[in-house]
Amino acid sequence: MALRDQIRIMVVDDMSTSRGLITQALDSMGIRQVGIASDGPGALGAIEKTPVHLVISDYNMPGMDGLQLLHSLRTNPKTKGLGFILITGRADKEIIDTGRKLGMNNFLKKPFTPQELRACIEAVVGRL
After folding, report:
1. CATH architecture assigned to 3-121
2. Cβ contacts of residue 78 below 8 Å, gap of 6+?
């Protein structure tokens, strides 16, 4: 069975358009087990109920940004080993450096193509 048939991914973004674009791209890659959340606390609750292998999160979200979500995942023994990709419109060195310190596996700058998303995911989990 291919990795794409087994992997479970959580997409976290407060913008429904962005969530839709990412989930469409994942679907076109053959990834069917995709959860979505519109904010960090919602993602944490969903992951608690249904564990995932990889979180793809927007950086800029109200309440809890992508780096705060990453920190919450890394400080919980149950979720500290999850793959984490941060998506940001402003790939500032400070954001990327902080993400790396917190244990981010990869990042992607908006706008991006489905091919760039796939390469970003494969760099974290292996060939789909």
Report:
1. 3-Layer(aba) Sandwich (3.40)
2. 48, 51
Give the pair of three-digit tokens for residue 121: 């995911």
Beta-carbon contacts of 46 under 8 Å, excluding residues fewer than 6 positions away, are 10, 35, 37
Beta pairing, strands 33-37 & 83-88: unpaired
Q: What is the domain partition of the chain in residue ranges?
A: 3-121
HEC assignment per residue over 40-85: HHHHHHHHHHCCCCEEEEECCCCCCCHHHHHHHHHCCCCCCCCEEE
How confident is the chain (128 residues) per 10-residue block, as mean pLDDT?
A: 92 96 97 97 97 97 96 97 95 93 97 96 96
Give the number of other CB atoms < 10 A from CB of residue 36: 18
- Residues 6 or more apart whose CB falls under 8 angstroms from that of 18 comprise 58, 87, 110
Q: Specify the pTM.
A: 0.96
